[in-house]
Design goal:
Elements (H helix, E strand, L loop, with lengths): L11 E2 L2 E2 L1 E3 L2 E3 L6 E5 L6 E6 L3 H20 L2 H17 L1 H12 L3 H20 L7 E4 L10 E9 L2 E5 L7 H12 L3 E5 L5 H14 L6 E3 L4 H9 L6 E5 L2 H11 L4 E4 L5 E4 L5 H13 L11 E4 L1 H16 L18 H16 L3 E4 L3 E2 L2 E2 L2 E4 L16 E3 L6 H9 L3 E2 L1 E5 L3 H10 L4 E4 L12 E2 L1 E2 L2 E2 L1 E2 L1 H7 L1 E9 L2 H5 L7
Parallel strand pairs: 9-10, 9-12, 10-11, 12-13, 14-15, 14-22, 19-20, 22-23
Antiparallel strand pairs: 1-2, 3-4, 5-6, 7-8, 8-28, 13-26, 16-19, 17-18, 21-25, 24-27
Helix pairs in contact: 2-4, 2-6, 3-4, 4-5, 5-14, 9-10
Bound molecules: SN-glycerol-3-phosphate.
Length: 501
């Protein structure tokens, strides 16, 4: 891919991309690189640096040394820098979108939208700077306290925040961590997922050009298996915001020790469809929710639980719409493209094969070419099948027919995951009652599961995560209250004229 943007030349030599420390683009002393290939055509997109532990140390030291200076930069100036970064993202969205498409096989239009959505997050985070205002209180509300005791509470950064992003939204989901981290005055070390590193690394140029001082934002690339544990257990990391698999998230929580964690992990979002649901709307939500970006979204519709009177027609219509999805080259904006790599295809196929062995009805799909899996609809999935519980992260939608609402709630809740749930019905009272029973972070009524809009709280329970993200929630979670208490002297009391005749 030809790079027509002069500003990006500094970060690469031919196809070799560098990493970013203290405002400089560097080649790793390891002498090793990792090749990133386009999952659709297997062409080389570029090579990223396999950083060493010493380079991890350098990134963290620089970040640590920069915190004070960045914290002392007025909040409004930090907000202005985020806005400048958003402008650059919009300006360069076509190039970055194409790069992202090449790197992770996302349809071009969606890839460009991802860059623009990140710009929106940066702008909205800048606008949310008032979340950082403090409060004052007098002590006389509680017994034992008095008006002479006054607390001044304001918010301070946590220090060095480690932002680890996933392959599926490498620009957006790392960006949505970086913007609040920087606004609140933290310095950042970003470790993108290997697949996705190239596009995400462009955040280095963008933030540098926007005015983030050297050392405040740093990028480390390399295999998680080599530097991951070293990074997450580093004593100078003060907070970790991670998006990725539940398995890696659990490991991270075990290794990281006593620092704040914000984790966005896997999901097995179930759509409960009641007999009175609006068929057209429900079909649209299921097909879009299950198959957008080939189902490689934590918030994809990963199970459908239809009630008896609607099951046949619902499945028939979902199959009809699924068969209309275009398949092929992401550059041509086909609805279904390649999964991220062949291992992931093998895994999804394994789940389909297990279900077939146990008697599932394959309504469509179950075909593979290269890294492309045809969108697959499975009917009569039973709870002994792996696909009922394991997160497929691929283009497969399993229908588990249920007889009662209680059964649907039980199957939803029996999952180890607890990201989102969906209820499709025209009976809003009933929907609200069911919503209260679901053990998830968010329940969507008559809509597909989704993280956005990005100012909503985004929460995973159980194995789906820890803490709340979303613009103002991330700002709060990436800063902490600092309290200064003034203990006024008795003399102050004497000055008050409050004698009542
Ligand atoms: O899997 C990542 C997820 O956050 C994607 O965002 O808004 O499409 O659900 P959204």
């Amino acid at each position: 891919m030809i790079n027509k943007i002069q500003e990006f030349n500094v970060m690469r030599e031919n196809l070799n991309y560098k990493f970013f420390i203290n405002g400089e683009w560097r080649v790793s002393t390891s002498g090793k690189t990792i090749t990133i290939k386009n999952p659709f055509n297997n062409e080389i997109v570029g090579n990223i640096q396999a950083c060493t532990k010493e380079e991890v140390d350098q990134a963290i030291i620089n970040a640590k040394q920069s915190v004070n200076c960045w914290e002392n930069t007025p909040i409004r100036e930090r907000a202005e820098i985020l806005k400048k970064a958003a402008n650059l993202m919009n300006k360069w969205s076509d190039y970055l979108g194409e790069l992202l498409m090449n790197e992770n096989g996302k349809p071009l239009k969606s890839a460009i939208s991802e860059i623009k959505r990140t710009a929106l997050i940066f702008n909205a985070t800048a606008e949310a700077k008032s979340e950082l205002v403090g409060t004052t209180m007098t002590g006389d509300i509680l017994e034992g306290g008095s008006r002479e005791k006054i607390s001044i509470t304001y918010r301070v950064p946590l220090g060095v925040v480690l932002c680890i992003g996933p392959f599926n939204y490498p620009f957006n989901l790392t960006g949505s961590k970086i913007a609040p981290a920087l606004l609140t005055g933290n310095s950042v070390v970003m470790k993108p997922s290997t697949e996705g590193s190239i596009t995400a690394s462009h955040l280095g140029i963008i933030l540098d050009k926007a005015g983030v001082p050297p050392g405040v934002f740093n990028i480390i690339t390399g295999r998680g298996s080599e530097i991951g544990d070293y990074l997450i257990s580093h004593p100078d990391i003060n907070m970790i915001n991670f998006t990725g698999s539940s398995k890696t998230g659990k490991h991270l929580a075990e290794v990281a020790g006593m620092i704040p964690l914000l984790l966005e992990l896997g999901g097995k979002d179930a759509a409960i469809v009641l007999n009175d649901a609006d068929l057209k709307k429900t079909v649209k939500s299921i097909v879009s929710g299950a198959f957008s970006y080939n189902g490689q979204r934590c918030t994809a519709v990963k199970r459908v639980l239809p009630m008896p009177d609607i099951a046949d027609i619902l499945i028939e219509k979902v199959v009809e719409e699924t068969k209309k999805l275009s398949i092929g080259d992401p550059a041509e904006n086909k609805s279904i493209g390649p999964l991220i790599n062949s291992n992931q295809c093998d895994y999804v196929q394994e789940l389909i094969d297990d279900a077939i062995d146990k008697g599932v009805e394959v309504k469509c799909g179950n075909k593979r070419e290269g890294n492309i899996l045809w969108p697959t609809v499975l009917d009569k999935v039973t709870v002994d099948m792996r696909i009922a519980w394991e997160e497929q992260f691929g283009p497969v939608v399993p229908f588990i027919r249920v007889k009662t609402i209680e059964e649907a709630i039980k199957i939803s809740n029996d999952s180890e995951y607890g990201l989102q749930g969906m209820i499709f019905t025209n009976n809003i009272d009933l929907a609200l009652n069911i919503a209260q029973e679901l053990e998830v972070g968010t329940v969507q009524i008559n809509g597909q599961s989704s993280r956005g809009p990005d100012h909503f709280p985004f929460i995973g329970t159980k194995a789906s995560g820890m803490g709340a993200q979303g613009i103002k929630y991330s700002i709060k979670n990436m800063s902490r209250p600092k309290v200064i208490v003034m203990n006024l002297s008795e003399k102050g009391k004497l000055l008050r004229k409050c004698d009542i005749d």
